[in-house]
Design brief:
Bound molecules: flavin mononucleotide
CATH architecture of the largest domain: 3-Layer(aba) Sandwich
Largest sheet: 6 strands, mixed
Number of helices: 7
CATH superfamily of the largest domain: Flavodoxin domain
Shape: globular
Number of domains: 2
Length: 196
Amino acid sequence: MRKTAVVYYSKYGTTKKYAGIISDELGADLFEARNIKFRDLKDYDTVVFGGGIYSGGIGGIELITRNWYKGLNEKKVICFAVGIAADSEENRQQCLDINFKRRFVTDAEEDHGREDLSASELLKEKRLPIRCFFLPGAFDPCKVKGRDKFIIGITKKMIGDSPEGKYLLDYFNKGCDLVDTGKIKPIIEACLQHHI
Ligand SMILES: Cc1cc2nc3c(=O)[nH]c(=O)nc-3n(C[C@H](O)[C@H](O)[C@H](O)COP(=O)(O)O)c2cc1C
């Protein structure tokens, strides 16, 4: 019998909700990322990690990326990220590049003779091979306080009046609830497949 852990990092509860449903469906143990250490995952064959997206970063993802070559790469690891930005190919790639990079700068020696590749392509090549799904989140402007409120203010200024950012500006101003629990199905299926 495979042992599965579902670990989540959630500031406002959306990711927690998804993680709870996923762990129920899989009969898995559920942990809040803040309460565990990597060693607590050693007896699990499958680890599902979910984190809210905050300014492009998946909350708590270091638990996975920092420990990837310390044994996590031998387990089945499935991540999911919860955000309100449109689920486009461009946004997905950007999120993967930000969160699963192996390092910021390219290694000059290793990349010798690869001048044909742009810096961003090299960065993509160096991404950790971690599977990540994207789930739609929620945002309530009344619940955001302190530093997050400040960050949202800056983000809104950066979006400005760009037409492609209009929907996000509306979400940040008026709030949104895009949560769709039907979207967890591919995550459950990926967990139940036998190969890593
Ligand atoms: C400070 C802050 C920054 C955010 N930045 C992003 C972002 O870069 N991309 C995105 O898609 N959603 C962003 N969001 C929206 C959250 O990802 C969304 O609210 C998500 O549901 C949060 O998960 P949680 O409820 O588990 O905390 C941000 C929310 C906050 C509060």
